[in-house]
Specification:
single chain; 409 residues; mainly alpha; 74% helix
């Protein structure tokens, strides 16, 4: 397949341009990953008899490839980022299709590791491609639309599950085969149909750790820890405490998707208008409240309506995470985007390697304490967000940068 510089890509038919490729990838990934997530808690409880410790171990194993995402830097020496991203998407699709074929703890852990390698390497490369393909002035809005496209794709999959799961007595195996197969098919189409797009700035192929990116690294670490608690335990709570069945938990996911389709483009516009600092302060303040109320469900016996409402609100707030991407895009050396995406993904997953398994044991003793810890982590993110400048730029990465520069003089 031939290579085309990005500056010449506008001459291609619209369906073969880089932005269309990003949208197809955004549609393909959730077909596999989101369907896997929607069925996971019911699958492991009903088929494999998982408890809180098992689900914590599963998610720890799932996050190991995220911690090793720094390996992308070595791979892009030999493989173009675009090709690596699509190969990773194929691996995710194939592993998802095979998930139900191994209904034991060891089998589920193994297939989860494979799908996770595909997911995390895809996400690392995808973030890099988005920041290279999108212009800075349009990035917040386009990232919002990409989120909405992924949500729309998942909405179709979840709607089909809700409408057909009980009516046609679907099996976990059938749903995993279909969703993983569609993801694989789209990724293979993209590999064949699209030229290799070459950015204006050649990416560094060595690990990049720069002192001036320290705030971005810290925000990534806190974001990873906070997200793990939500991803692992919020859905598990809905099944374990309130007895949600597959079609009920999927219906809840559907509400999240509709909310994301409506609000993600608005969130992108909001980031463009408010700036990254105000957007992230708003997100983290909301998450402190949400996680505190989650804890109240266990501490004070609040009911299922509040839990479901918080679950949807949580997802709406997470859409603002795109502000973290655009913050880095504004402060980064263009050649640092690919290696720093890998480093940031690894930092984001440091807590993910040990936190789910550790908190799985705490969950058995006090589920409310798990969400209390998440609220504290969100507070830490809020403090860090206040250090983002109103107009971030190279040399002005944090509100402390001018003071540090003056002190150095």
């Amino acid at each position: 397949m031939h290579t085309i510089p990005l500056r010449e890509a506008h001459r291609l038919p619209r369906w073969r341009q880089p932005i269309t490729l990003l949208f197809l990838m955004a549609v393909a990934m959730p077909l596999a990953f989101a369907t896997w997530s929607a069925l996971l808690n019911n699958f492991v409880i009903e088929v494999a008899g998982f408890d809180g410790r098992d689900i914590g171990l599963l998610h720890t194993v799932r996050e190991i490839p995220g911690f090793l995402a720094i390996g992308v830097i070595a791979l892009i020496i030999f493989i173009r980022e675009q090709v690596l991203g699509l190969i990773s998407l194929v691996l995710l699709g194939v592993a998802t299709a095979l998930t139900a074929q191994f209904p034991s703890l060891g089998g589920i852990l193994t297939i989860t590791m494979l799908s996770s390698i595909g997911f995390h390497y895809y996400e690392t490369v995808n973030q890099s491609l988005q920041l290279q393909f999108l212009k800075i002035e349009r990035a917040p809005q386009m990232l919002g639309w990409l989120l909405a496209a992924g949500s729309a794709s998942t909405l179709v999959a979840y709607a089909l599950i809700v409408m057909t799961w009980e009516s046609f007595d679907l099996s976990y195996s059938f749903v995993y085969w279909v969703s993983g197969g569609l993801c694989t098919a789209i990724a293979l189409f993209c590999l064949i149909a699209y030229p290799r797009f070459e950015g204006e700035h050649r990416q560094n192929t060595r690990m990049v750790l720069r002192r001036r990116y320290w705030l971005y690294y810290a925000l990534q670490f806190f974001a990873g820890a906070r997200r793990q608690i939500f991803v692992v335990f919020a859905g598990f709570m809905m099944v374990e405490r309130f007895g949600f069945e597959v079609h009920e938990i999927t219906a809840l996911f559907l509400l999240n998707l509709v909310a994301n389709m409506i609000f993600a483009p608005l969130m992108g516009r909001l980031v463009g208008r408010w700036g990254e600092r105000n957007a992230l302060i708003f997100e983290y303040s909301g998450l402190v409240i949400v996680f505190t109320l989650y804890g109240g469900i266990y501490w004070f016996g609040w009911g299922v309506v509040l839990a479901a409402t918080l679950y949807v609100i949580d997802h709406v707030f997470f859409a603002l995470a795109l502000a973290l991407k655009t913050y880095f895009q504004k402060i980064a050396d263009p050649a640092d985007i690919a290696p720093t995406a890998a480093v940031a993904f690894t930092i984001n997953h440091i807590a993910a390697v040990f936190l789910p398994a550790l908190l799985g044991y705490l969950w058995v003793v006090s589920p409310g304490a798990v969400f209390g810890l998440a609220s504290g982590i969100a507070c830490g993110s809020l403090v860090l967000a206040t250090l983002i400048p109103r107009h971030p730029a190279p040399g002005h990465e944090t509100r402390l940068s001018p003071k540090l520069a003056t002190a150095a003089e």
